[in-house]
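Input structure tokens:
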């Protein structure tokens, strides 16, 4: 869906990423001089950090100027969504996480980074992002020489296919973004838990909770048994009656906590529960519909010589791909477009660090094929399967 900046929705027209337009030439292009007065630095003297911040957790990476990944820290780091935790706390966490990554890389804590890329959920508005960047650089002047801030969708696509592709995120919430080689972006979804989040863990959980409540009250009896879904919900939320869900939904609402029950529901679905199998199949359909909405806007250069379009599938919901597949694949298989659905082997913090270097005017040599593995292929000729 093409739409202008409005609130937290990204512009669909060509826009710059950070301070440099994301129109990308081949990644085999020579290195550029950066803009921080350290043009004489050797590659192994440069350090770029990237931080991937979701609604539930964060990950951080540091990459040296020669492309060597110095450290990845991805366990135990809480959310860096500034809309959820507040600007000051978000900045404090960013600095703390960068320090942890420096320690893991055996780098001195006083080291000033040559670039920092922040790809955070909730960072959909350029004006808000610029204010946050300005505040961060003022509050922590020795943190980095340059800073780029984008949404988490950009971090994911920069990790998998920085020259262009689609990312579909299905974690606590959901979102979908197309990036074309000329920098043009088109987005579908990303409307949050009230208007959107179709196919997400939160939406799956909410649908099952509503189904159980409606069945228990006799409003809409389920055609499928609800016993296993009901037990999973009651055990997770530690309740004995439907009315006790009121506190979790209205009094102490926590989207991430609510979405957490999805893991238990997926377990029951994998064991064959018919109600939950249908719910996950519907989620697969909803996620594929986001991608389908963006396909007409794909630049033809991304499909040259029938090359499969890379679609990065990001988020915990895709851990249940076998449950999603039946609803997902039929939506896209008749579009006549070869698609490689891929999962990241490395966190989107890698793409965030690459973005930091690019926006600092430096070409960071990377083999992006090492960052992902194929989840599934749709419409791909046998001769091209598993090779792209």
């Amino acid at each position: 869906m093409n739409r202008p900046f409005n609130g937290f929705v990204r512009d669909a027209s060509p826009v710059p990423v950070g301070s440099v337009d994301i129109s990308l030439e081949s990644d085999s292009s020579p290195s550029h001089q950066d803009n921080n007065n350290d043009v004489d630095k050797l590659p192994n003297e440069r350090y770029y950090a990237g931080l991937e911040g979701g609604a539930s957790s964060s990950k951080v990476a540091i990459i040296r100027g020669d492309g060597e990944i110095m450290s990845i820290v991805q366990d135990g780091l809480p959310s860096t969504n500034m809309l959820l935790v507040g600007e000051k706390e978000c900045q404090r966490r960013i600095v703390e996480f960068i320090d942890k990554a420096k320690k893991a890389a055996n780098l001195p804590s006083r080291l000033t980074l040559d670039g920092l890329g922040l790809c955070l959920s909730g960072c959909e508005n350029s004006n808000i992002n610029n204010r946050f960047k300005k505040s961060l650089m003022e509050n922590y002047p020795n943190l980095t020489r340059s800073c780029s801030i984008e949404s988490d969708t950009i971090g994911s696509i920069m990790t998998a296919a920085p020259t262009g592709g689609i990312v579909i995120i299905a974690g606590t919430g959901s979102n979908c973004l197309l990036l074309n080689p000329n920098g043009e972006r088109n987005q579908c979804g990303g409307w949050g838990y009230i208007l959107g989040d179709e196919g997400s863990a939160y939406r799956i959980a909410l649908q099952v909770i509503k189904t159980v409540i409606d069945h228990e009250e006799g409003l809409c009896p389920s055609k499928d048994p609800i016993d296993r879904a009901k037990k999973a919900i009651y055990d997770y939320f530690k309740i004995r009656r439907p009315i006790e869900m009121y506190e979790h939904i209205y009094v102490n609402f926590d989207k991430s906590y609510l979405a957490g029950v999805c893991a238990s529901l997926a377990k029951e679905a994998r064991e064959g529960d018919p109600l939950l199998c249908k719910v996950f199949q519907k989620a697969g359909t909803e996620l594929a519909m986001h991608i389908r909405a963006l396909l007409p806007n794909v630049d033809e250069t991304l499909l040259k010589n029938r090359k499969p379009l890379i679609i990065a599938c990001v988020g915990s919901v895709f851990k249940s791909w076998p449950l999603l597949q039946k609803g997902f694949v039929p939506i896209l298989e008749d579009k006549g477009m070869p698609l490689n659905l891929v999962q990241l082997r490395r966190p989107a913090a890698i793409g965030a660090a690459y973005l930091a270097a690019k926006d600092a005017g430096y070409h960071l040599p990377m083999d992006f094929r090492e960052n992902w593995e194929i989840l599934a292929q749709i419409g791909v000729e046998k001769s091209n399967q598993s090779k792209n």
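The CA atoms of residues 205 and 262 lie 6 Å apart. The longest helix spans residues 274-294.
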